[in-house]
Design brief:
- The protein has about 400 residues and is an alpha/beta fold.
- It is about 45% helix and about 15% strand.
- The chain contains 18 helices and twelve strands.
- Strands 9-8-7-10-11-12 form a six-stranded parallel beta sheet, sandwiched between helices.
- It is globular.
- The model has no long low-confidence stretch (mean pLDDT about 95).
Length: about 400
């Protein structure tokens, strides 16, 4: 508590940074919450003029965040509060006239409250307060109360940021529409840009060695496996759906591919046909050689990068309604959609038998509609625009 950022957020922020670095002198202050991410620091530094990387010890941060209970603040704010990062921002503003600020995620807006900052954009990505509300519905007793409280307190803060900043952006039209309902006073300043996918990196033209047992049909799920929505998704699929599939296709395997599998995820390895990989150097071989990818999320906000990546790799994808949200893809034409365990099992069995045309159309959709360069063009316009925006007039 709070949960760490998911892989999709890191992908979005990195592509955003690369895009900005082509047009501006970028000064970057950020957290590193995963020890494995320190290997990428030099790559990020090359894109920036000045940088500050604050180490985030998640255990210490969780304890520190409890002080917000007394102060009547959202725990997420104290979780991401760092004196060194605050000092770096102050020193930067003292020596450089920073003309534009882009904040990634609502909790980082606490570092951009200085009145000298005259053009401020926040990329909320998701409505995090609503995510906490969803989490609470999966919990009991004290955690339910705590997560509901976090949802309420964080929404108060999100509304304040939306009111004070020039522009608030989200990952999808539906996410922006939700926040307009939650923060109607700022509705005109609330917009969105969809995630993209690196269609050259995630491409079927690459050839990889098969990481799976020879001649084995595999269903794959990819994602950070300490992230609660992913944990909930694979538990549901492994326990309630996959046995129905195995009853008809007994040799099928379900691979869960992703870093930091939680205890709940590791326990799934005891189930017949379920395999847990933990961290892998490259997820593309696991996508390329799978029969199809599955995204059975029941808790979700924004756009699921795992879905875009699998579609770009030209393999079929089976999704829940929550995982499809924000993605412009036609069920039955470019991916498969199912809403309950029985429907998931039926669709999975169908995909185990035939999938070529679906996969080909999925790749075309990614090539034509999900290039990062096109998705990020709106950010350039908003950073340069000195006039008040009005997204509701569009």
């Amino acid at each position: 508590m709070p949960y760490p950022p998911n892989k999709g957020d890191k992908i979005r922020s990195f592509h955003l940074l690369k895009h900005l670095a082509q047009r501006y002198h970028v000064h970057l202050g950020t957290f590193v919450d995963d020890p494995n991410d320190w290997q990428f620091v030099d790559t990020v530094k090359k894109l920036c003029r000045e940088t500050h990387f604050a180490k985030l010890d998640t255990r210490v941060a969780r304890v520190r965040s409890l002080g917000a209970l007394v102060a009547n603040r959202a725990l997420s704010l104290d979780y991401y509060r760092d004196a060194g990062l605050h000092a770096w921002v102050e020193n930067l503003l003292a020596k450089i006239a920073v003309s534009r600020v882009l904040v990634f995620s609502s909790v980082m807006a606490q570092y951009a409250l200085d009145p000298r900052l005259t053009r401020r954009i926040v990329d909320f990505v998701d409505v995090d307060s609503d995510k906490w509300k969803q989490y609470s519905e999966q919990k009991t007793w004290l955690l339910r109360w705590l997560y509901r409280r976090e949802g309420r307190r964080l929404l108060q803060y999100e509304r304040q940021i939306a009111r004070d900043f020039d522009v608030s952006l989200f990952v999808s039209q539906s996410e922006a529409a939700l926040f307009r309902r939650l923060a109607p006073c700022s509705a005109k300043k609330i917009g969105f840009f969809n995630n993209g996918v690196d269609i050259d990196y995630f491409s079927p033209v690459h050839r990889f060695e098969n990481p799976y047992p020879k001649d084995q049909a595999v269903i794959v799920f990819t994602g950070a496996m300490d992230y609660w929505p992913n944990v909930d998704a694979v538990q549901w699929f492994a326990r309630d759906i996959f046995p129905l599939v195995r009853a008809r296709h007994p040799d099928t395997l379900f691979y869960i591919v992703g870093a930091k599998p939680s205890a709940e995820v590791r326990a799934l390895a005891d189930l017949p046909g379920v395999r847990i990989t933990g961290t892998v150097a490259d997820i593309r071989p696991y996508l390329a050689h799978a029969q199809f990818a599955v995204a059975p999320l029941r808790i979700a906000r924004g756009i699921q990068n795992k879905v875009l990546e699998a579609m770009a790799m030209q393999i079929p994808v089976l999704v829940s309604p929550q995982a499809l949200e924000g993605i412009d893809a036609a069920p039955g034409q470019e991916l498969m959609l199912a809403a309950n365990a029985a429907a998931f099992a039926d669709a999975a069995c169908e995909l185990l038998q035939t999938n070529g045309a679906l996969a080909a159309r999925a790749r075309v959709k990614m090539e034509t509609s999900y290039c990062w360069r096109n998705k990020l063009a709106i950010v350039d316009t908003l950073l340069e625009n000195k006039q008040p925006v009005n997204f509701t007039a569009q």
